[in-house]
Amino acid sequence: MKIIKKDITEKILSILAVAGVLSIAIIAPNIIGIIGKSAYRKYKFDRRKYQKSLYYLRRKQYIEMFQEEDNDIIKLTKSGKVHAYRYFVDNLTIKEPKIWDGFLRIVAFDIPNILRFGRDALRDKLKKWGFYQLQESVFVYPYDCQKEIELLKEVYQLKPYVRFILVKSIDDQDKILKYFNLN
């Protein structure tokens, strides 16, 4: 199976995004990830396509590269983080537990029109995940999803405009429970 350059580029960004989440807590806040000379072998990248993808990412100013000892260090730039996390968000899912805990999660937002792209992306993602749309900007979900919502708020820079609410019950709840087959 042949991997095209776009796939390699997205894979590199997603590796750096995940490594960044881990590296911040463990190593240093500004080093996002280390991809050594064997990365293209480990992830089954064609060496030439891997190098072209790195060149493309540098040219787009998504990454910075430098040498430290025997490793090639790759650091995501601010715009690279945004791009990587958007790719990461596209593939993000919410795991449903076997047993419902009896709480409902409400995501409510009032996002200004200047941030329409983020608002639309948030709404689309909530619909894709199967949230129940209570009102235009109010969605309900029965399973834990706070981390995923926090990530969306961070990626689309919507923290001041989005609220996450945990409730035991809500009026007209039967309709919502039926939607999720939780009767």
User: What's the total helix number?
Assistant: 7
Derived structural class:
alpha+beta
Ranges where pLDDT stays below 50 over 5 or more residues in a row are 21-38
Q: Summarize the helix and strand pattern as letters.
A: HEHHEEHEHEEHEH
Read across the widest sheet, the strand sequence of neighbours is 5-6-4-7
Radius of gyration: 20 Å
Shape: elongated
DSSP helix fraction:
40-55%
Strand content: 15-25%
Quantity of strands, as a count: 7
- How would you characterize the largest beta sheet? 4 strands, antiparallel
How far the N terminus sits from the C terminus, by CA atoms, comes to 45 Å
Mean pLDDT: 79
Question: Can you tell me about this structure?
Answer:
By secondary structure, this protein is an alpha+beta fold. It contains seven helices and seven strands. The chain has helices spanning 5-26, 39-42, 47-59, 78-90, 116-128, 146-155, 173-179, and strands spanning 33-34, 63-68, 71-76, 104-109, 132-135, 138-141, 162-167. A hairpin with a 2-residue loop joins strand 5 and strand 6 (138-141). The longest helix has 22 residues, at 5-26.
In short:
The protein is an alpha+beta fold and 183 residues long.
What features would you highlight for this structure?
183 residues, alpha+beta, 4-stranded antiparallel β-sheet, 3-stranded antiparallel β-sheet, 7 helices, 7 strands, 19% strand
